[in-house]
Amino acid sequence: MSSDTKERILAATLEMFSQYGYAGTNIRELSASLGLVKSGVYKHYESKEAIWNALLDQMIAYYGEHFGSAEHLPPVPDSLEGLVHMTMQMVNITVHDEKIIMTRKVLTLEQYRDERARELATKHFLTGLTDMFTHVFTGMMDKGMLRKDDPRMLAFAYTAPIAALIHLCDREPEKTEEAIRQVEAFSRHFIKTYGATD
Amino acid sequence: MSSDTKERILAATLEMFSQYGYAGTNIRELSASLGLVKSGVYKHYESKEAIWNALLDQMIAYYGEHFGSAEHLPPVPDSLEGLVHMTMQMVNITVHDEKIIMTRKVLTLEQYRDERARELATKHFLTGLTDMFTHVFTGMMDKGMLRKDDPRMLAFAYTAPIAALIHLCDREPEKTEEAIRQVEAFSRHFIKTYGATD
DNA sequence: TTGACAAGTGACCTTTCGTTCACTATAATG
DNA sequence: CATTATAGTGAACGAAAGGTCACTTGTCAA
After folding, report:
1. First to last CA, chain B
2. Residues in chain A with pLDDT < 50?
3. Residue A22 contacts B, CB cutoff 8 Å
4. How far apart are CA B167 and CA A122, in angstroms?
5. Which H/E stretch holds residue A82?
6. Is the CB atom of residue B16 positioned under 7 angstroms from any atom of strand D?
7. A168–B126 C-beta distance less than 8 A
8. Could you say which of B8, B44, B136, B138 would form a disulfide bridge with B151 (CB–CB 3.0 to 4.6 Å)?
């Protein structure tokens, strides 16, 4: 089973790149963290850059599979409180799942250097979230739960502050609980502001 | 004039670190970009890390001088349109000033590695902006221009999306004009939502 | 004029980097 | 059983990294 090691290398790479970045990571430590010697890695990838490209391929594919198409859009909540609940569920996953955290960190660290990282970063941090909640808010407006307004603008106004708090968790993990409370407070403020009054 | 070169080194360091990061920058190229040979740099700083610390000192000091104290808070605008205007002025400066752009990029790239960078990043990207606009919105509520609400929550809801668009400009400079238009659209949406109705 | 010092040079050192290669152990295949 | 491909080893390589040092140059104070 060669492919097992191949994937283990990618996992270890994600871990190291998310901490030290591409330039700050060396193959010795990467191999050592897998219990093998550095030349062993070259049996599976021909260069450091090849590993990086494979990791990016995987991240891009993963994003495409899980957030890329319309099938994976979240259900429209059936109440304002449901929106808060859905939001908290999503945020709790995203700030506690190590793999997702490391993916964000890697994209953050390599966004100025690699074009594909740049593109995925914009999707991950901005347009993807906006698209997703544009759909949610459109549905909620149709059902009369939200005031009629530009759903895309609302989606942007809703997701950007939450994304900022998620980035705070990545930067200062000890503030995670506090940040989650802030997300909830913000979400409740949002529904109070934009919730339909009838 | 030794201190002239010392400052030129810091300027060149900011430029290189903001592009390639600390680990991705080498002293040879840094010196070359100043027209001197690498040992010349060591006449002014004893190590690469010393340069990094001096650069951080400078960034922290600059932030403290320009955004740190209450004296530097922006004036409370005298109309909702004034808020839009003030916002656009600030954003235009911040996304076009190369030094400010590079400062943000450096903080972005080193935030997971260096504790002081982490702290400054949080101030720069989150709490500093929130504090600033908490003051602005408090003043605007007092003057009856904004609906009474939690000024801190509003400041957060206002600045986080704008910061997200600024980060987009850093990541994809070719989208700067489009992003600026989005900032203005968001700002107008904000005053329509929270502006006092009387 | 001289002495001292700061700024800059170029050769050199050590370490670490990414990468290669001859080799071994293992396990499946004919 | 012999063979062959695969995964992993360990020594070695050249390049590039950060850093040192003896030396030159220019400036200015005594």
Report:
1. 62
2. none
3. yes
4. 9
5. helix A80-96
6. no
7. yes
8. B138
> DSSP secondary-structure letter at B196?
-
The number of beta carbons lying within 10 Å of the beta carbon of residue A119 is 16
CATH for A56-194 (3.30.160, 1.10.10, 1.10.357, 2.60.40): 1.10.357
Residues B30 and B21: their CA atoms lie apart, in Å, by: 12
Q: Could you give the angle at the alpha carbon of A94 between the alpha carbons of B179 and A190, nearest 5°?
A: 60
Q: Is B94 on the interface with A (CB under 8 A)?
A: no
Query: In degrees, to the nearest 5, what angle opens at C-alpha B45 toward C-alphas B43 and B49?
Result: 150
Which single residue is written with the structure tokens 């040879």? B28
**HEC assignment per residue over A27-74:** HHHHHHCCCCCHHHHCCCCCCHHHHHHHHHHHHHHHHHHHHHCHHHCC
On whether any CB of chain B is under 8 Å from the CB of A125, the answer is yes
Give the integer Cα–Cα distance in Å for B175 and A177. Answer: 34
Residue A114, helix vs strand vs coil: coil
pLDDT tens digits, one per residue of A62-98: 999 999 888 899 999 999 999 999 999 999 999 999 9
The reply to whether the predicted model has a pTM over 0.85 is: yes
Residue B167: pLDDT over 90 = yes
